[in-house]
Amino acid sequence: MVSSPPPLLLLLFLLLPSLCSSAPAFLRSPPSRLAHPSSFVAQQPVWFRQRLDHFSSQDRREFQQRYYEFLDYFKDPNAPIFLRICGESTCSGIPNDYLLVLAKKFGAAVVSLEHRYYGESSPFEELTTDNLKYLSSKQALFDLASYRNFYQESINKKFNTTEKENPWIVFGVSYPGALSAWFRLKFPHLVRGSLSSSGVVLAVHNYTAFDQQVAASAGPACANALRDVTQEVDKALTSNSHKIKALFGVEQLKNDGDFRYLLADAAAEAFQYGNPDILCLPLVAAYSSGQNVVAAYAEFVKLFFFGIFGVNPISYDQEHLKLTKSGPDTGDRQWWYQVCTEVAYFQVAPSQNSIRSPGVNEKYHLDLCANVFGNGTYPEVDITNLYYASNIVFTNGSQDPWRHASKQISSPGEPAIIITCHNCGHGVDLRGCPQSPHQIEGDATKCAKPNEVHKARQQIADYIQKWLKNEDTSSTL
């Protein structure tokens, strides 16, 4: 029986009180199913009827879409409304992060709309490939516009006013961060400004920069240890694939590519969500002392990635992705459909110094798309160029592998802020550190450099203030 070095168990013991949430695979934000109720300020759902197809005048079908509202700070009928966009997972409420601090500062209402097809906002009970054809970011943007107008009318009725328009600001993290930026671009007359936190707005087909950033965030010693793990696992897969998968507790993954993808994701999410030391300290200790580095990594995957983070390895199984039954906790099939038809971001192995296996290549991704959704499924990545928009703030954490799919260079009306610290990852400006598990009000005290986060937050607040005053920010970088 192989055991891992003691440092991992010690680190997990010390961090266990705060590690109570989970983060699924790929791009999706940490889900809230394990979060404490204090992590939310609103969990009572409200519903409205949404059009199924915004681009067909003949199709009048509708579905029920879920949203949440928080009005504790909304005392002035002319105060702003903050629209927080939910993304590619169940939307369980309005989280109590730094957005709520901003809402209190500006006396804003906060509302949040669940993304179509996710959680309880699915138009269909069966998510067949044909039924998924209405799932896209383009449809989602019109959902947001329709909802924004619906809610504005409800506020007007509540305060017995007519034709009044509150100032709206839209917020999102990760894929919702991209939607936030795209919404401001598509509907500038509906919102004053947008915060795109870790917003993946740049079209990338083969996203090799993801793995390169993982290596940079890991540092030389940890990156070398991870490369050693990958090489040893690839060797083991050719001799006894069942045995190596059993070491990681994932014998059910029959496809070697799915297994390789899972192993790459487990490492990436440690950096993506601000927990680098939990991975690197024990792994480097094993690597430098000549211990079994694969066993050490397997211990990390089982104890942290599966046990603490709550990732279910079945979500990497292509046979699981073929299941079409809709439900409040499903989301894997839907997101992969968006990946395979629209956004891509294929996390392929770089040609040199790759941390992930070279078996995780473009062919693996395209084969998955065809296997799960049918032949001919291919991503269209002709995403709108954002450089002609204005009143959008882009923020990124320095350690986040997704930052290279975001906007990192400022341009007129589009300031780009990089928040730099050892554990500044995905959505650090709103989430604090670590980014998972949940930090109340986006507590930044555990960030390696809290002042970097505070400085970025002050810039965000300053921009919101200017937007609400209708001041020109195009010359401010």
From TrEMBL:
Q: What is the name of the protein in this document?
A: Serine carboxypeptidase S28 family protein
For this protein's source organism, the top of the classification is: Eukaryota, Viridiplantae, Streptophyta, Embryophyta, Bryophyta
| Database matches in InterPro entries | AB_hydrolase_fold, Peptidase_S28, Ser_carbopepase_S28_SKS
> Which Gene Ontology biological process is one annotated for this entry?
proteolysis
Q: Which domain of life is it from?
A: Eukaryota
The entry assigns this protein to a family as follows:
Belongs to the peptidase S28 family.
Signal peptide boundaries: 1-22
Which key words are in the record? Glycoprotein, Hydrolase, Protease, Signal
The UniProt GO MF terms for this protein read: serine-type exopeptidase activity
